[in-house]
Write a structure and sequence with these properties.
11 helices, alpha/beta, five-stranded parallel beta sheet
Length: about 550
């Protein structure tokens, strides 16, 4: 394709994931000339069937979204290793090409700093985002049910589509949770429970991660295509090397390289960074110049700092009855009972036995999940085995069908020492220093994972599960790959990177639409909040234009 810069652009957006797509669509629909620069390629929708087939074949080489190699290298010099490339995608659509599709709103306590821990307040509150949350749910197409007693207030009790029904394994958990006084409720999903926005309803492939072949699960190509229909230009496979400033406190151009090695400058009136919580701080640091020796938008020294993620806690095993494991490829039931009150007691309704937190110290919010994809799939068992015919059938009957598990997320506090910097000893395919991730957990994260495990074990024991594994502090716990906090929002230019309108304190025409502006992590999956913030950012950019 033609990868030369557009002659005139009102807005240049770096990154074609959900944030970039929503900003582009809104501004292009409002009549502005929008150009999107994307480092990865455009994947053809017709490829998805083949991607799904490759993803379930054991030993299939490579990543179906083509991550890896010198282009995507990174370093770790922190306390813990961060496995960055396990779950990121460079391409038109970004991480929504392979995400799980869960879309919960963050709670008011997440914004106002009123959790019983040391999380600071955001410079905006829940009410500031309420209209944008509603707009984002409509844009993404969310299937939901108003049965969550712990959910934040809504302006409309309904969702764009009816929610998905609880799975069979959810019904097994329901009795145990009822005995323990733990409320289960449905999960809002950005996947179609019925036809929506010209896309199919979910047809149950069950391979939601890493790929949805039907297109029923939302991904950002939906709004990229809408933006293009409104006149936006998308240029793929053009990693931005640096941003250029004009000396008057403005960005003048984004410099990018084509696959052929040609270097171009894309000029625009406004620039929006929407490339995620790792690549955005990296680009700002790579753009250091005489006027900005520590990197762009970094007079506070906060660029790259306060890196956060969600940590997984889980446990599972087998039951002496069938569980219909892996019949559903996404989560249909959760419990947010321990979100605003993570230390809350669990009391058995019949016996009166009480299960309390082992410590009265601070916890992160805890989001509990009832997993529909516990244990190996029959396809995995069959393809990994050496048996055939009746022998293979016997192995399947013995190994499949009784697994059950719970999962959950806990958030990290924003720690200044957790950060993304540049590793000048290792370079990418264009000679740029790769991102270096310094990552550590801290006592609150460890305590919160242990607390989540205690609740999970209480439920599993009540259900009669033979517990065989636990993802805990010692083994199995790891990141949810929700990159947050590296260009935090704030009102003090000495402590933050962008203001509440998501414009850089230092550069008057540079905005950031990303989870990188999050002040705290909460424990809810971040994509709906990313979408809401992107729509808010688009409004503010439009006001300046």
């Amino acid at each position: 394709m033609q990868r030369a810069p557009t002659d005139r652009a009102d807005v240049c957006i770096v990154g074609a994931g959900p944030a970039g797509a929503l900003v582009a669509n809104q501004l292009a629909s409002d009549g502005y000339d929008v150009t999107i620069l994307e480092a990865g390629r455009r994947f053809d929708f017709d490829e998805r069937q083949g991607q799904m087939e490759r993803s379930i074949r054991p030993g299939e080489p490579g990543d179906i979204w083509e991550m890896g190699g010198e282009r995507d290298d990174w370093s770790n010099t922190g306390e813990r290793t961060y496995p960055l490339n396990v779950a990121r995608v460079k391409g038109v659509g970004g991480s929504t090409l392979h995400w799980q599709g869960m879309v919960m709103r963050m709670h008011p306590n997440d914004f106002d700093g009123s959790h019983d821990n040391d999380d600071p307040a955001w410079p905006i509150d829940y009410d500031d985002l309420r209209p944008y949350y509603a707009e984002a749910e409509t844009a993404l197409g969310v299937a939901g049910t108003g049965d969550n007693p712990f959910a934040p207030p809504r302006e409309d009790p309904t969702w764009p589509m009816p929610g998905f029904k609880p799975s069979y394994s959810d019904s097994l958990f329901e009795e145990a949770c009822s005995n323990l006084g733990i409320a289960m409720h449905s999960v809002p999903n950005a996947r179609n429970s019925e036809s929506y926005d010209g896309r199919s309803q979910c047809v149950g492939y069950g391979t939601c991660q890493p790929v949805c072949p039907s297109g029923a699960k939302y991904d950002a190509t939906v709004h990229i295509e809408d933006a293009e229909a409104a006149g936006a230009t998308v240029i793929d496979r053009v990693p931005v090397q640096r941003l250029v400033t004009d000396g008057d406190g403005r960005v003048s151009a984004a410099v990018y390289v084509t696959p052929e090695g040609d270097e171009y400058r894309q000029e625009a009136r406004e620039f929006v960074l929407a490339a995620g919580g790792i690549e955005i701080p990296r680009l700002l640091l790579l753009s250091a110049n005489e006027d900005h020796p520590d990197g762009l938008a970094n007079s506070s020294g906060a660029v790259g700092r306060y890196f956060m993620d969600h940590l997984f806690a889980g446990s599972g095993g087998t039951l002496d009855r069938r569980t219909r494991q892996n019949h559903v490829g996404f989560i249909t039931s959760e419990s947010h009972q321990f979100y605003d009150d993570p230390g809350g007691a669990v009391e058995h309704v019949e016996t009166g036995e009480t299960f309390v937190a082992e410590s009265d110290a601070a916890y992160s919010p805890i989001k509990l999940e009832f997993l529909n994809y516990a244990g190996p799939s029959p396809v995995e068992i069959a393809l990994n085995g050496d048996d055939w015919g009746d022998s293979m059938l016997g192995e399947l009957r013995a190994a499949y069908g009784n697994s059950i598990a719970m999962g959950g997320l806990v958030g990290m506090p924003p720690r200044r020492e957790n950060r993304v910097t540049l590793d000048t000893t290792t370079t990418d395919d264009h000679g740029n220093p790769v991102p270096d991730i310094k990552w550590s957990w801290g006592d609150r994260v460890r305590r919160s994972i242990a607390r989540a495990n205690d609740i999970q074990h209480t439920v599993l024991n009540e259900l009669g599960v033979d517990i065989e594994w636990t993802a805990n502090v010692e083994s199995g716990s790891g990141p949810a790959y929700h990159h947050m906090g590296t260009t935090r929002m704030g009102t003090d230019p000495d402590e933050s990177v962008v203001n509440p309108r998501m414009r850089s304190h230092d550069l008057s025409n540079l905005s950031i639409a990303s989870s990188s502006v999050f002040v705290t992590a909460g424990s809810m999956n971040p994509t709906l909040t990313i979408a809401a913030l992107a729509l808010k950012c688009a409004d503010h950019v439009g006001e300046r234009l």
